[in-house]
Amino acid sequence: MVVDDLVVSKVYPHPIDNKFYESIQVRNSLTFDFISFMDPESPVFSINHICFHGSKWVTKDHLLKFRGRSIAIQGADSIRTDEVIEFIDNWLNGSNTKLEFMCIISHKKPSIVFNKKEIVERFNVFPWDPKKRGARFNCIQTMGMSSLIDPLDCTQGMDIERKSDGMLATIMMEDFHFRFYIDPITTT
Description:
Elements: E1 2-8, H1 18-22, E2 25-33, E3 49-53, H2 60-65, E4 70-74, H3 81-93, E5 101-105, H4 116-122, E6 126-127, E7 158-161, E8 168-174, E9 177-183
Parallel strand pairs: 1-2, 2-3, 3-4, 4-5
Antiparallel strand pairs: 5-9, 6-7, 7-8, 8-9
């Protein structure tokens, strides 16, 4: 069966069998509300746009295996700063040219605060440069769950450049939000 968009909105007490997703081809987007677990090797992680709600089960393996265009993960209470750093490292040293956006939102718990200073110290980040890219990114499907600030204005973000192909990415962070935008236009 082929569908354009699929919304799964039921609490599943057990991991969802990959066979279900192998039998359905989702061409555009998949939204999940409150599932218990999904294997990082699932074909789901190649769908263009994914949005997860209630995602306490998401791990760094899910971030590293994602091969779609955009992913928004809300309630990702298990993702820590060191795993975000590993994700950024993976993007910088990889060849994923499809990814455009990743958003990770944890619930407001004091132990789940993304450490911006640690990320700034780890990477060669630089401020927005209007000569290199525009101030705003295009709205994509998973942008519906961002923050109180304008989620598309990246002028206050930290940019990094992938040396292998000149792609620019912008890192935007607040205590409980991590957003990663890739500008598909900035290749050298």
